[in-house]
What we know:
Helices cover 41% and strands 22% of the residues.
Amino acid sequence: MQIVSLGPVVVSGPSGTGKSTLLNRLFAAHPNSFGFSISHTTRKPRPGEQDGVNYHFVDRETILQGIANGEFIESAEFSGNMYGTSIKAVRDVQKTGKICMLDIDMQGVKSVKKTDLNARFLFIAPPSLEALEQRLRGRGTETEESAQLRLAAATEELAYAAVPGHYDLVIVNDDLDEAYRKLETFIFKEE
Ligand SMILES: Nc1ncnc2c1ncn2[C@@H]1O[C@H](COP(=O)(O)OP(=O)(O)OP(=O)(O)O)[C@@H](O)[C@H]1O
């Protein structure tokens, strides 16, 4: 199988739709084809972590300046630390000849669209909002409040994905094997 394009592949879809399930299977089946961008973080390195390997360890000022300069695809704050993915980090993966997979939300999708990264956009949709709710609850990771927040965000994400041109392909993750085959075909073509 041959890679369709060396541009990054943006994978998006509501929380609980099955992105991690599908991507983990893809990485296991093709261990040498994918590379991961190195994120920036303001958190301190843990023992054994190396700057430029696990993360780019930077101060808050550096990330904020980078965001202001439009150098970041996405950024977020978790437990008092900032995290972000820079456009350069994605390009660095591309230089290695591997595909950078970006599992990002709708805001991230919109900011990648403003770059010249030549990305391809894939949306993983649930068969229905009811099925999504079942999966989210079935995973056992959500409180009632976080499940409600994720479902509300899902409605917005599905509306954005329904607009022609926003995504190159929408895969409905109903039967997992079938969804996986479509994902594989989106990334690789038969030689
Ligand atoms: N095709 C499928 N049919 C039924 N259940 C599925 C299917 N795909 C995934 N699941 C289950 O749905 C749950 C959510 O999947 P997963 O954690 O991969 O979602 P996600 O999109 O990565 O979510 P998040 O964005 O929150 O990380 C998991 O329990 C997973 O086993």
